[in-house]
Design goal:
binds guanosine-5'-diphosphate; alpha/beta; 13 helices; seven-stranded parallel sheet; 7 strands; 251 residues; single chain; 50% helix
Length: 251
Amino acid sequence: AQAERGMAHRLLDGDRRALAKAITLIESTRTDHRQEADALLDALMPHTGQSLRVGISGVPGVGKSTFIETLGLHLITQGHRVAVLAVDPSSTLSGGSILGDKTRMEKLSVSDAAFIRPTPTSGALGGVAEHTREALLLCEAAGFDVVIVETVGVGQSETAVAGMTDLFLLLQLPNAGDDLQAIKRGVMERADLVVVNKADLDADAATRAMANISDVPVMLASALTGEGIDAVWAAVRTQAERRRADGAFDK
Ligand code: GDP
């Protein structure tokens, strides 16, 4: 119990190593670990619920990690602390992590004000929801005031993630073909905001893609050049604040 209190203290101080250890603890399947994890979560619960939680999804290659890095660095210069939880459905199938293999968000990961962590899905869908939700609460207790939950847009984890975030943002390619759009339709239904990324590549195609999306607010951006990122963040904040005011937010 003393070790737990030590961990809780360091975590509340914003210690990223304590946060990483705590997340490992909640991911453990051992019964004794689960008990420790529950005690830790109980102790930290009063310190949660203060962050802006954003779900970000999109197919591989759409630019999620580039977008999150650009946005994250931008937010850090404004004084925010940014945590990124990457939900990785590949980790249980392959035994290794696709997200972990690449060097992702290199600049963001070296920042003291950032915390990046892939979260395995444990094979079961309930696992995604529960572990990610708990990891999110731990990030909040550690003082991260923006928590981004990244998913790869396959459809299942998105429902769970949309349910635990203030706002769900979907990244789209300017030139995505019909097949790709069809795969993403289920995910599209959950989106609060669609961002057509890589607008720097082909402005006309990006504008056409934007015109094809109805029912959801849609914006153009380039994660690479940073163009539009400011406006996207402003829209995220406005929407999230409105939802919270409506009482739609529930931790
Ligand atoms: P993820 O798989 O969704 O995380 O995508 P990445 O962030 O790894 O990006 C895939 C590729 O697209 C990389 O080569 C990026 O440099 C590139 N990319 C990402 N965003 C943009 C953008 O806004 N414009 C351009 N031109 N390239 C981009």
